[in-house]
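Subject: sequence -> structure tokens, single chain

Hey, anyone have a minute? Need the predicted structure for the following. Not urgent.
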Amino acid sequence: MQMTRVFSIAPSAPFLVTLAHALLDGTLVPGFAPRGDPLALASATVYLPTRRAGRLFADALLEASGLPRIVPLGDVDEDTLAFSEEAPLLAPPRAVSPVHRRIALAALVERWRDALAAGIGQAAVAAGPSATVALADELASLFDQMMTAGVKWSRLESLALEEHDRFFGGVPQVIISDERGQLLETGGGVRKALPHFGDAPFLAINSDTIWIEGVRPNLLRLGDVFDPERMDALLLLASTAASVGYDGIGDFTMDPAGRLTRRAERSVAPFVYAGACVLTPSLFDGSPEGAFSLNRIFDRAAERDRK
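Reply:
Had a minute. Here:
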């Protein structure tokens, strides 16, 4: 992807305060200076690494927007309150430890499972300890997401379940392309399975890597970015410098427009193929029967100069 604007902050400057002023003054996004315009500011989305950074950035924005002179009317100091009977009421609640939260939620999942089993005669969910713990972790993740997004639990009551049934109803169809007679490698295997895909671009995964997701999962991001009007292939790449356990010399270089070039002989490339890609079926036109690598398809896409 092409990076059009990069804003940097000196290590010696207060990061969140500087970022807040840059956002309000239009330095961060040219043409967007929402200082004094709350509606414009509310339309912005700022991604920060942690919740604490989000809270501090909100404070920095408030301070950068200008505050009135604040004079406390009471003469009670915080130190006095700290030793008063009301201190526990004023203190923020302590966060439960991850272990205790997992145990508590696992017990909740067990009770829910037992209630379902009593109604239908069998354990429909969380049939074993590992599944119970996994579902408890998913529930904890949901709590975190709801808190981060600021969504009230009462909004769940207004959900129209019929609008979401399509995400849960039925079982995905699994089609097996049999290669027991001959191993077809990455490219030949995809070619054999093409009749099941139709004419639309498709996602191919032959990964033996583990990656860390960003704000949006990588596979969903591939689908978002792929543009069939100007792309024949979109590859998921990883930085060789940031990849743990990889000691190769890379696969591709990338120009500012995001186009890839195969690593030249006796050279080092900064990116390695991570095992997932979006491809158009036309790339396989005229490809040979039998075993071959997807690298041949990648090279064909590069020759079209649309990737």
